[in-house]
Design brief:
By secondary structure, the protein is of the alpha/beta class. It contains two helices and eight strands.
Length: 145
């Protein structure tokens, strides 16, 4: 399971011209689900994303996690993160989870985040989404479990 996380000042996701999720300062999480992923990996990745210290403290050092920074989370499903890109000029997607399983784990990831009390918004699974954000830093990390 893969999370590409970005520290953002704001982020939003739209489907067919309608905003379906929007946050202020916090994390934009692009979530990729692979074939071997399960509930245990999902929970571990959610915990890791929320605990990752990439927000500035009083000394301007990356020392706070999203909860300590009173941030929000926008989770977007992105199957292309599971792409095989090691050869050729076209990505392969055979490592990606079946859509039914990917959707189940995507929902579980969002729920694991929301269970901590943090505000969680999301896109629409498998939809053609337009995502816009203001990357604060820029700060972007790839987390994988």
């Amino acid at each position: 399971m893969i999370a590409l996380i970005q520290r953002v000042s704001d982020a939003r996701v739209s489907v067919a011209g309608e905003t379906v999720g929007q946050i202020g300062p916090g994390l934009l999480v692009l979530l990729g689900v692979e074939k071997e992923d399960d509930e245990s990996k999902c929970k571990r990745l959610a915990q890791r994303v929320l605990a990752y210290r990439i927000f500035a403290d009083g000394d301007h050092k990356m020392n706070l996690n999203v909860q300590q920074a009173e941030g929000e989370v926008l989770v977007i499903s992105q199957f292309t993160l599971a792409a095989q890109t090691d050869k050729g000029n076209r990505p392969g997607f055979s490592k990606g989870a079946h859509p039914i399983e990917a959707k189940r784990l995507y929902k579980l990831f969002k729920q694991n985040c929301a269970d901590t009390g943090i505000k969680v918004e999301s896109g629409k699974f498998a939809a053609d989404m337009q995502v816009s954000s203001t990357n604060n830093g820029p700060v972007t990390f790839w987390l994988q479990v």
